[in-house]
Amino acid sequence: MISSLSRMVCTYNISTVLVKEQLWLTTYKVEGAWCGPASCKEEIPEGMFMCSELYLAAFEGRTQEVIGLLTGSYVAIEAARNGQAALHATRANANHPGECCSTSEVTGDRSTLLHIAASQNHCELITELARRDSTLLSSLNTTQETPLHCAARAGHADAVEAIFRLAKDNVEEDRLGGVTGNRNEPGDTALHLAARHGHGAVVETLMKLAPELALEVNVAGVSPLYLAVMSGSVHAVAAIVGYKDASAAGPSSQNALHAAVFQSSG
Ligand SMILES: [Zn+2]
């Protein structure tokens, strides 16, 4: 239960109740009472745990409130909903009383503000965050996933497109691969995740922006095309097969044709 909650920021269909549980989890970890296996890989320094106000504002896409918490700006704070940002600095249980929040704050699984915004398809917030701190675009959580992975898994084509555009404008060319072609712990690119979940629009967007991702296989030797066929999404399959060099590799020497047979006989 706790382990699954620690990965929750990358899921898009999350209830308010579960959001509160995630916040509880973060607070609990601040107190040092529990440490999950993923988060124990490298201890998160005190003061870098994301404040609950900042998490909620990012999760719900309240861009002005997030900016208000990051800058302490009067105008931004005035614009913030319910005056929550103004109250933040004086709260007794704030992680860093009296100081502004920072883009380096992370959740229990080391997800950044941009991971959260990407998983929820908050494109305005994604843009503001990337312009203020472009290193967020290549930030990694404990499963080595970038914000692009989160957007792709959740099926948000708009967020995927925004991340590519912002990376092109704000990241040096030799570091672009760390944003657009990064692999997570099992070796999946963003295209693998979109294909596995049958997100046709995201697969189509990724194939338009970075078709070379269709050449990549993950640690298990599985290609995005194989996963797209297994997902049953005709849209996803059509977007990948249009690229003639796409790998069709699957596990145990199978290929996408085997996957098609499995699907048709299933
Ligand atoms: Zn904070």
From TrEMBL:
Keyword Glycoprotein included in the entry's annotation: no
Signal peptide: none
Key words of the record: ANK repeat
Spans of repeat ANK: 186-218
InterPro entries in the record: Ankyrin_rpt (IPR002110), Ankyrin_rpt-contain_sf (IPR036770)
UniProt keyword annotation of Transmembrane helix present: no
PANTHER family with a match to the protein in the record: NO MECHANORECEPTOR POTENTIAL C, ISOFORM D-RELATED, PGG DOMAIN-CONTAINING PROTEIN
Protein name: Uncharacterized protein
Species assigned in the record: Eleusine coracana subsp. coracana
